[in-house]
Amino acid sequence: MITPNSLLNRPRLISASVLLCACYLSNPALAAENNELAVPMGVWGLDSAILPLSGLYGQIIAPSYRADSVKDSSGKDFSFNKSIPGIAIPINGRVNARIKVDALVPKLVYVSEDPVFGGRIGSYIAVPLLNKSRDVTISVTTPLPLALQQKISSEASHAASGEKRGIGDVEVAGFIGWKFESLSLVAAMNVDLPTGSFDRNSQVNLGLNSYSIRPLVSAAWSTESGFDVAASISYNYSTANRETNYKSGQYIHAEYVGSYQFSNNFKGGIQGYYLQQTSDDKDPGNTTALTLVGGNRARVSALGPIFSYQTDDLKTQIDLKYLKEFSARARPEGGLALVTLSRLF
Length: 345
Description:
about 350 residues
């Protein structure tokens, strides 16, 4: 039997039935626990497939992600239908969310001079400094007295929202690259370390509390006319969350770029990415309130312009890009603006 008092005592149970997603760019991490991933998207570029001059490089990567919609597993705006023990009818509602992820990512890159296996080897470490927030509005549509409906919506929205600042999961990588006239190849192994803070009771976290391993292969084709094309493909595997035992599914992640060298210093083009989750999320302890519909398999595409400027001495480079997402499934759908400053010491 539904009574006003029984519902008034359960607003947080209702809010716990709705979990939304938030996106990580410097080490970016999407659909997984709380719909976050461990796959950095949009940071890769043409220069990632062509090793630079040998030496020690410093980079500052500044991504800014914004999303005002969250998609379910069929690509529709997120809604929920939740049965609460002791309440005779399900609680229905709609979800709107404004998701923000800003980051400043110092990155140190080393490229060797001496050849190894016919190529040059290198490594890097990236430490993301994050500012993440999620402002959620939950609208209960179950027929109830207006005051009660507003109270449930307000408390559920508050419980699903949050903000965190601090260090995220550190990324380390080793790579080797080869140059064959117009063709360049790079093979890499990336590892994300669980250095960001994680609270199982928080809707926003700085880290995933798990390890991620991501082999990657990139290729680039350069022409004398100034047109260049490049692509990369990687596969992400994550261990289970060390606290909740939630295990995110595996992902295939592809990026591609085409650019034209307008002058010795300036080039521009188009970049895009595609992510597809290939295996289901697993939650043996039922630690997340989000029902794993279809295994919570995420998918998204993005496309947008890129611009790059390099100084005459080849020691400093600035990259600008904006990538707009579309066709999202089981994750947010938004846009990524990114600025990268690279300097050879």
